[in-house]
Amino acid sequence: MTSVRPRKAASLADALAAPAGVVRLSVIGAPIPTLPDEIRHLSDLEVLTLNSNGLEALPAALFDLPKLRVLNLFNNTLTELPAGLSRLSRLESLTLGDNPLRTLPDDLALCTGLRELNLANLPHLDFSAAWPLITPLTALEKLSLYQNPIETLPEAIGQLQQLRVLRLFACRIEHLPASLAKLNQLEELDLRANQLAAFPFAEAVFPALRRLDLSYNPMTGEVTQP
Question: E-assigned strands of 17-155?
Fold first, then answer.
């Protein structure tokens, strides 16, 4: 049997014309409102980057890619995702930031292999409904939620005990939950440009912390940084 050499496709048309062996596909800045159902034929695809394409909708066929590990949909015009996200059983990294999403798919909570999740700048998303879909993702190591009107972090964020990077820049946060202290693997905590008057944790709580940024907060007390 002749083996197919793994390759990075030059374009979407190139990938669909010869799908066998395509492991990486990057389409950036192309005016494509949706993807064809034929995307499901890219059965070897591991990394798919679809930034800044004006995508308005996605076919459910996108979730028929058995080897997909990285899905980047940053800066499109998506208001929702189709059902079936959890069919991407190998998914490790999902970027949905900078879209007018109003909801997250219910089965996001079942994507328990996710290690990186970017939900930055989703101004139309109701985070009170989104948190129950995020906090079950206990394998997460990097969570980016910056530039969202979050205001309050739930106590359940303490479940994400594998987090190494937590980015909460410009989220209007006034208070931090006590459960944040459970995130003792944190190496980077970005809390810039919020409404924090204090940082209520001692240095020893986060022994791995290398970067703590509290700039542009109305802090009234001293903060001990590692």
Answer: 22-26, 47-49, 70-72, 93-95, 116-118, 142-144
Chain mean pLDDT for the chain: 94
User: Residues 175, 181, 182, 183: what is their CA dihedral angle, to the nearest 10 degrees?
Assistant: 90
* Cα distance between the two ends of the chain: 57
Helix segments in the chain, DSSP class H: 12-17, 127-134
User: Is the confidence at residue 188, as pLDDT, over 50?
Assistant: yes
Structural tokens at position 55? 């995508």
- Distance between alpha carbon 111 and the CA centroid of its chain, in Å? 12
Rounded-to-10 torsion of CA 80, 85, 88, 90 = 90
| pLDDT interval class at 226 (50, 70, 90) | very low
Q: How many domains does the chain have?
A: 1
Question: pLDDT for 147-184, tens place per residue?
Answer: 999 999 999 999 999 999 999 999 999 999 999 999 99
Q: What is the DSSP letter of 167?
A: E
Residues 90-117: tens digit of each pLDDT: 999 999 999 999 999 999 999 999 999 9
- Domain membership of residue 13 as a residue range: 7-213
> What CATH number corresponds to the domain at position 39?
3.80.10.10
